[in-house]
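Why show two proteins at once? Because comparison is the fastest way to build intuition. When a single record is shown, students tend to memorize it. When two are placed side by side, the eye starts asking what differs. So, the first record is below.
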Amino acid sequence: MKKIVFSTLFAAMLPQLAEAAPKNIIYMIGDGMGPAYLSAYRYYQDNPATKAVESTIYDELWVGVASTYPDDDTIVTDSAAGATALATRIKSYNGAISVNHQHQPLTTMLEIAKAKGMHTGIVATSQINHATPASFMAHNEHRKNYNEIANDFVDSKVAGKFVADLMFGGGTKYFIRDDRNLVAEFKQAGFSYADNWQDLTKLSKLPALALLAPVGLPSSLDNSVANPLQTMTEKALQLLTPSEKGFVLMVEGSQIDWCGHANDIACAMAEMDDFAKAIRVAKAYVDSHPDTMLVITADHETGGLSLGSDGVYAWNTAVIKGVKHTAPQISRLLLESSANEVPKLWATLTGIQLTTAEFAELTLALQQAKKVLGAKLPADLEDLPKTQEQALDTLSAAVKKQINHYSKTGWTSGAHTAIDVPVLAWGKQRVDFAGFQDNTDIAAKLIGFIEAK
């Protein structure tokens, strides 16, 4: 696919980069965070007692937009191609983890920073070998090769050094395996390691690794730990601050995308809230360390979110705020309750008063799911047999149908869309990211700062 030409202005700025190059870069990616998500969060967090709609941290920092298409004719990118563009300044095919069409590695921003003697880090609420963080750390022909990608985190070096000095997220399933214990190898190489939130707070020096879940972290809406991304971001910045030559930190709000795929609006707003709090941490860091540049964007939009549906001129945030868990967790709790407990439990979990016909529809879906799943689900839903997974998905869809209906939330897809994504920035070079650009231009500007050191 032809590349849209956005780079004339950027080329004119190149001679100025060496003079203006920041010491530190914080690069935040809201996976799946299209512009409608920012609008939704604004209304979601608004104080209904005031006449004006309160602005958000997203509104405060929003300076531009970016196109996201991959290097093929699909127009719609996946997270791997999107992250490859954001990490390397070069487009590739859907599924690629920082490799080109010939499967040759594309040098990533973190690798360039490491070669300059900078410290580097990644933070994610997914497993750290998932598409976006992996594209900053590893090289593989396909994003689903999770074990190979995890191996690359140890095996791939820059001048004999690990690509990242700090890695926080999930993924013990891939890093502690029967065939290879990568955590042990990291520890042998001098990494401090945490596998729980209490130990995360005790990490005191680099290099540091924290794997806090078998795969991805629990959703913010279901997590017993409040604001997990904010917590990890705070700790990451604390550990990276002493770096004499500066640092590059990539922070991903991974599960905004997962909520979008699920068409789960309450889930999405909880993830947007945690991401917003992490952004506030990063902005405060820039304010106290003005030699730092903060850039925030998304790899793509997920779900085709719309605020207002069914021909109704309204979007009901009170309904969304009343939902206590993600749809799968609500489904689990309903499955584990007796029939006479369901009406009260539904009201407690969602706050939605269903009509008789709607409740009958939900009850039928629950009964059908119980026939397949039984009354008790395993703690980890990742490895459910296919028939059980489908039964849970069907019940979850029935739950979301009512939440979306009563909140008037619309979705056009369970996958990604090609809509342009927001670009937010804070720091002395903020203006460099204003206006319309391609995702590769964002990476080119940031890599330009690093190369100018």
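Second record. Ask yourself what differs from the first in the token line.
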Amino acid sequence: MCRVCGGTKLTKFLSLGPTPLANAFLRSTDEFPTEQFYPLDVYRCEGCSLVQLLDLIDPETLFSHYIYVTGTSETVAAHNRTYAKTIVDLLKLQPGNLVVEVASNDGSLLKCFKPYGIRTLGVEPAENISELARSQGIETFTRFFNSTTGREVQEVYGAAEVVIANNVLAHVDDTPDFLEGCKHVLKPDGLIVIEVPYLRDLLDRLEYDTIYHEHLCYFSVTTLMRLCDRVGLFIKRLEHVALHGGSLRVYLGRREVQGSHADTVVDYSAAETEAGFENMDRYERFAADVAVNRQAVRSLLEKLKFDGKVVAGYGAPAKGNTLLNYCGIDTQLVSFTVDQNPMKIGRYTPGTHLPVLPVAALRERQTDFAFVLAWNFEEEIRRQQRDYAESGGRFIIPIPEPRVV
């Protein structure tokens, strides 16, 4: 059943094959034989055009012990500082006002509100990540968020001026209930601020590696409008942000208090219709282009191997594991990958079993090419690895088509 309109006519347009969970990094080679794989098939609702996965993994399996933290990237840190200032200025927040963040991770964003005297509360399902946030002084409530949790938060902490939900709405099976939970926490004239990856960027830039089991929904402005209409919200403001390959930041208010969708929102929706988002042909073309990318990526890596070049991955992001598994890239083509996240170093990538090493290994092991799996941080990576480039190292960017820089 569709997560926006409740419709039952959903058509599959892309299959990325049996795939392990994107953050299920393996601790040792002993775990290789028992690794679990799940279908990774993508559907479009014929009723409202929401793009979504139907194969649901237990959220406890996905999120109760998580190894992705937001605080390891300079790009994300800068984004968070600007984000907090924008919200404080735009909503004219005052010292003592309450900001609640759902799926607050390690508290990196909430920490940016502290200089303004804003009260903060994080709601985070992963106990290990919650503890990390608390160790940095961010009060964190460890729960999966839904309408019941929203009532709990409001009863214990009071109503909030702002509820933030970044990169979590797409993870939720019951999206209307999630937004009802946000409404329970919110003051009548408050705003819900949500960031989600933008479907148009996914389609136009061929970002198929951002499809994995945690991401159940892939939103356009049109489908967000339809979801808001269902739960009595409206989109007051919309911004397109570059983070994670292109995201939407939407500011939602209660329809009965504040009004109807902003003109900008209506314009975005009209542009999506013009671009074919309501037509299955657009999605079938995307699927065909994905297959072409797989062949191009493999051909490049196979040629480099034939030429005797040493290729390492750069980054161990969840998206990288979709790409590695779909393209069939293992240690025969990419010797290992490197990452800054200490919770991933020393483990193996799911499905393809690349060892995850510290970033220093890129030069210590005399690699010729860095295959950039975390391509959304390309500028940051190339800035950090200027010495690697000056010593002859090259970078391979796989999306939207493989290029060497």
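One difference worth noting in the second protein: Residues 60-258 form a domain with the Rossmann fold fold (CATH 3.40.50.150).
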